[in-house]
Design goal:
binds zinc ion; seven-stranded mixed β-sheet; 6 helices; TIM Barrel; alpha/beta; two-stranded parallel ribbon; about 210 residues
Length: about 210
């Protein structure tokens, strides 16, 4: 099952131009099986998107992207609303544990590159609290994604893929391919926890599919 795990819509992210109608249409057009809406700091937009898509039968899951001092974290399965201001990673881990949610650092190596003289250090404090890292981010440079993949390999972590779409043309650029069909949020969290997935560029998947 092909899922875009990282999407911002204009229902919940001021920075996004992507409308709910466009997202549904584009995702289906691309042959993606489901999308997961991950607005900044709030489930409100994702809730609206789930409602919007309900009649269509197209699966929409909810996640949230939370800024912490250790970087942006994608969280799946969080059952509570979050605050807009900074959440510490420690607070986030506590919330996730209580709610049975999983944490995946988003674009952990964004900004790495020749032009940056001081590369960020991957915060190893997160290890043990995350189920994977986002190695395929559609809004990243290839170089940043390669750096993330190298870190995943170094620490024996799995990678996920998501477009980080803020506009229609970005939808589905990166995806996560799950071994099993996922019917709802709980199953999504379960599959992420169990590690039954791999990340991909949609373009490569389609090429290989012939
Ligand atoms: Zn944004
Ligand atoms: Zn994002």
């Amino acid at each position: 099952m092909i899922v875009d795990l990282h999407i911002h819509t204009n229902l919940g992210s001021i920075c996004s131009q992507l409308g709910p109608d466009e997202l549904l249409e584009r995702a289906q057009q691309l042959g993606i099986d489901a999308v997961c809406v991950t607005e900044h700091h709030s489930h409100r937009g994702a809730n609206k998107m789930v409602e919007y898509a309900a009649g269509s039968g197209y699966p929409v899951f909810r996640g949230v992207e939370i800024y912490t001092e250790l970087g942006d974290m994608l969280v799946y399965g969080l059952k509570r609303e979050t605050r807009y201001h900074l959440t510490t990673f420690e607070e986030l881990v506590e919330m996730a544990e209580e709610d049975g949610a999983v944490i995946i650092p988003a674009h952990p190596c964004r900004g790495w590159g020749r032009q940056h003289r001081h590369p960020h250090i991957f915060p190893q404090e997160v290890l043990g609290h995350i189920v994977a890292i986002e190695t395929h981010n559609g809004a990243n440079t290839i170089r940043s994604n390669e750096a993330a993949a190298a870190i995943a390999e170094e620490f024996g972590l799995l990678g996920t893929g998501g477009s980080d779409a803020h506009a229609i043309w970005q939808v589905g650029k990166c995806v996560t391919v799950f071994e099993r069909e996922i019917a709802g949020e709980e199953e999504l969290v379960q599959e992420l926890r169990e590690g039954r997935f791999f990340p991909a560029y949609l373009e490569d998947l389609m090429k290989n599919a012939g």
